[in-house]
Amino acid sequence: MSSNAAAAAGPPASQCAAAGRLAGDVFIFPLRVYYEDTDAAGIIYYANYLKFIERARTEMMRAAGIDHSGMRDADGVLFIVRRCTLDYRRPARLDDWLEIHTRIVALKRASLEAEQIVLRDGETLVHAELRLACIKESGAPARFPPDLRSALEAMLPSSRQAETGS
Q1: Rounded to two decimals, what is the model's pTM?
Q2: Strand partners, 30
Q3: What CATH fold (topology level) applies to the domain 25-161?
Q4: How far apart are CA 128 and CA 145, in angstroms?
């Protein structure tokens, strides 16, 4: 099988579980803390949480059938982080097993709001609120293409689907 055919076939089933799972309107992404993630004090270096939540959002999008490269190639649009607020409550340490819970809380014409929570054994370590914007490759704002909008609406809690702007 060629490498292109293998890539098109997707990851083996054993890798799918590691990429996260959907539980209602929340996408849960598991993550282990490695030595490279920590600072001199032995806790996660604060900026690494941004990497972790980015991975979780990307895997949530993939689970919903949204491929960032395909979105750019087919529709000429990209996501950017417009705003990000993090509240660091407790540190994570080397070898901790974390879960990142991601959910879309609002969907506008060209942006969405998301909430991401980093947990260890059910305890909130970091709480993040984000606004992602849809832009053209030129950097100009862009409305979500219809197929992308439909995929995003499907991730909203059913009570919020009626609130989305068109």
Answers
A1: 0.83
A2: 99
A3: Thiol Ester Dehydrase; Chain A (3.10.129)
A4: 26
